[in-house]
TrEMBL record:
Protein's UniProt name: DegV family protein
A family per Pfam: DegV
A GO molecular function held by the record: lipid binding
Job description of the protein: May bind long-chain fatty acids, such as palmitate, and may play a role in lipid transport or fatty acid metabolism.
Record-linked InterPro entries: DegV, DegV_C, DegV_domain_contain
Keyword presence, Iron: no
Amino acid sequence: MPIKIITDSTANITADQIDGIDHVTVPLSLHVDGKLWLDTPDIDLDKFLYTLKHTKNKSTSACPNVNDWLKAFEGSDEIFVITLTSALSGSYNSATQAAKIYHEKNPKAKILVFDSRSAGPQLRLLAEKIASLASAGKSFEEIVKATEEYQHHLDLMFALQDLTNLGNNGRIPAAVAKIAGLLKLFVIGTANNKGEFELLGKARGAKKARRKLLDEMVKAGYRGGRVQIDHVQNEGSALSMKEIILDNFPDAKVTIGECGALCSFYAEEGGLMVGFEKE
């Protein structure tokens, strides 16, 4: 049976194959303004973001359940799963429980569940690494070893204009979110070693925020490797971020994508999420 790469929807990958390897997305869900929104490629993202911005009620998110993962596992005996950081979601725990159940029914199956300790574009980079190794004919064990090593050389930075949902859902102190909004500041942050969101600094204005973002990337060990930029309805800023990276690292490979509903829920309109390789 074929090798399969499975990510939850925070990876922002809509393709059903990555480098010729089967890929399946398991969606998270969101409750906004009394309605359930499933984070799938066919979601009306404009309508979702409009509803999110204008609701007066608290909005929440929910991870996939065990059955959602089991359904995704079907038809394969070499499975690589990558989830949103376990520090912020139960997605990893649900996937791990599903893997145990699937293995009991399919004892020859090999399943690895990665806790990305991150979100968004960093998951994509991990998935693409696995696909590249699998396409090169590497064994399951070789892929596991190489991907675990690669994970140590990945990082995530983000620049956010609106911290409302991060504050409302306890991901950052509510007071920090409120002050940033009042002062109209961009907040620069990262996913730390525990997979928790950590604020690194602030900037006034989009241009300064992008410069600060690159400075923090370099400080973290970026030296011109692969970069994936995901944005929330802000392609212009993503393109400008790509330009500033290439101005400083001309040989860098930089690609741009769009955040799905879950990443948009936290990054909010105008937000940038940048996954990158580091030393």
